[in-house]
UniProtKB/TrEMBL annotation:
TM helices/strands, residue ranges: none
Pfam families associated with the record: MAM33
Species classification: Eukaryota, Viridiplantae, Streptophyta, Embryophyta, Tracheophyta
GO CC annotation terms, alphabetical: mitochondrial matrix
Region (Disordered): 128-153
Species in which this protein is naturally found: Arachis hypogaea
InterPro entries: MAM33 (IPR003428), MAM33_sf (IPR036561)
Record-given protein name: Mitochondrial glycoprotein
Sequence ranges of Acidic residues compositional bias: 132-146
Length: 256
């Protein structure tokens, strides 16, 4: 099964934990297919390196090494599987989604933009960090940290700008039904190259009341579970689309 088929489109945005369950169930099944593809690539490289080179000719172009033919068959099989099992549509944002989505094909991230009471808010959303569950069996107690470690997540970089002066930059991780702030810094629009800016203390070292206030600060500006749960599904489908395009480019290269 295709790498991206580990995560199918969730039936409901109100059930983000179902997404995490699908990740745990399906991620393990994708490794064998990827192993086959990588094995075929390695076999092609190793065999072709031992073939004497006589320069470019029409005969050499027509008679591709058997290893290349095998590689093409594996790639074509993976493309077919990806086309049949993955969701390649672009998700339409719900009517109450507070951001404009800027999604450029071929990129690993998307950008979100909105204005709020004179502020400009930009969010860089990365591909999900997928969790299989195997790497988290470390015997830890059932605390918040261990629970998060067993869930897939989406890294976010949130920037809040005002008309003039510095801006705030939050480094966040969105889990199902929870947004965690990892760091907060005050950035200058034109940083000095001769000085190292003070980034502030670790966010978890701040007063608990201050931490809660900044979580509320982001929630009011649209960084909340109802937003990030949709983004989780959106980025899963984007990964499926990008993976299929990557496979097609790989096939074109091997065929050339």
């Amino acid at each position: 099964m295709a790498f991206s088929s580990i995560l199918r489109r969730s039936g409901s945005l109100a059930r983000p934990l179902v997404i995490a369950g699908q990740l745990l169930k399906n991620t393990q099944r994708q490794s064998s297919y990827r192993t086959v593809l990588l094995s075929a690539i390695n076999q092609s490289v190793q065999k072709d390196s031992a073939v004497p080179t006589f320069g470019f000719s029409s005969l050499a172009y027509k008679n591709k090494p058997t290893s290349d033919e095998n590689l093409l068959r594996v790639i074509e099989s993976e493309i077919t599987c990806a086309q049949e099992t993955d969701n390649h549509t672009v998700d339409e944002a719900p009517s109450n989604f507070p951001f404009k989505i800027l999604d450029q094909p071929g990129q690993q991230t998307i950008m979100l933009e909105r204005t709020y009471q004179g502020e400009e808010i930009k969010v860089e959303v990365h591909m999900p960090d997928l969790v299989t569950g195997e790497e988290n069996d470390d015997g830890r107690d059932d605390d918040d940290e261990s629970e998060r470690a067993s869930q897939s997540s989406i890294p976010l970089s949130v920037s809040v700008y005002k008309k003039d002066g510095p801006y705030l930059e939050f480094s966040c991780v969105a889990y199902p039904d929870e947004v965690v702030i990892d760091s907060l810094s005050v950035k200058n629009p034109e940083p000095s190259e001769d000085q190292i800016a003070y980034e502030g203390p670790d966010f978890q070292d701040l007063d608990e009341g201050l931490q809660k206030s900044f979580h509320k600060y982001l929630e009011i500006r649209g960084i909340k579970p109802s937003t990030t749960n949709f983004l989780h599904e959106y980025m899963i489908n984007k990964d499926s689309r990008e993976y299929l395009v990557w496979l097609q480019k790989l096939k074109q290269f091997v065929e050339a």
